[in-house]
Amino acid sequence: MESFVAATGDAVRFLLPPTVIFGLFALVMKRAAVVGMMQRAKRETLTNLGLVSINLVLLAPFFALPKSWISATVTPIAAFEQFWLGLPEIATLVATLLLADLVIYWRHRIEHTPALWPIHATHHSDETITWLTLVRKHPLGQLVSTIIDATPLLLIGIPIWAILLTKFIHVWWGFFIHADTKWTLGKFDWILMSPAAHRVHHIRDRQLANSNYAGFVSIWDRLFGTWQDPRPHLDCETGIDGGSRDILGELARPVDFYAKMARGEAIEGETVTGDAAKA
Mean pLDDT of residues grouped by 10 in the chain (279 residues)? Predict the structure, then answer.
């Protein structure tokens, strides 16, 4: 019982600052229109909060297990450890930000393949994306990112402080790029991922959705040929074919999708998986 109380407190402390900051941001940017925006996003917000409650509270002890196992069993390569010790801290942080986003980029592309799309589709089914969409993950999707995102960084000996600080920066940038805004970053689009660029990744058009996979910088998408200029798509609709579901429907989505795939039937977003498989 104490672990759930502690997990609830952690979840509240995690969500309260962005709730305040992005709530004020919405008031400033949308003014009177913010009421209509909240009404349109109500259904998706309830689903998102339900998934957050499951992932960060109910299943928190479960997700702590792979984290502990990875920390205890992953042995850094000694040569890499010495390399990081010889770098200035700012260089270590910049390198970690880039390398962590490279890991996220490839994890994200893998999630768009047939094997993992049934799990990842929950994240893409949000039809009124807001900052809270960042944490809209099926528990299996949460497990995938828990296992993959930090493991390569630990393996190459990146200091724990740099990994934790990078995680903090990436999470807040993730809230920002999921926010309900059409912002690009002008010349900085050549380096950083913007809300407009990431919105294209959530677009209903499955061809265009196979783009802008990274979560912090745009250079990996440009390097690997998956960058999509967001400017022609600033007002794009988001979601997947078949629409979003309530919390129980989203939890059941992977079972439904895998069953359909086993029977050779089409699933929502199947062109995403097909195109991504060729990427």
Answer: 85 96 90 85 96 95 91 89 92 98 98 95 96 97 96 96 97 97 94 97 90 98 97 93 93 95 78 39
The residue with tokens 């297990």 is 65
Cα separation, 85 vs 63, in Å, equals 30
Count of CB atoms situated within 10 Å of the CB of 251: 18
Q: Which two tokens stand for residue 19?
A: 């709730």
Tell me which residue of 37, 12, 86 sits closest to 95, measured CA to CA: 86
First to last CA, the chain: 46
**8-state DSSP, 180:** S
Q: What's the CA gap between 227 and 170, in Å, rounded?
A: 19
Within 10 angstroms of residue 59's Cβ, the number of other Cβ atoms is: 15
> Could you give the residue ranges of the DSSP H alpha helices within the chain?
2-30, 34-53, 60-73, 78-85, 89-111, 117-124, 139-148, 151-155, 160-178, 195-201, 206-209, 219-223, 247-262, 270-278
Helices 139-148 and 60-73: crossing angle in degrees, nearest 10, is: 20
265 close to 110: Cβ distance less than 8 angstroms? no
Q: Is the pTM of this model over 0.85?
A: yes
With CA atoms as reference, report the closest residue to 196 among 206, 179, 182.
182
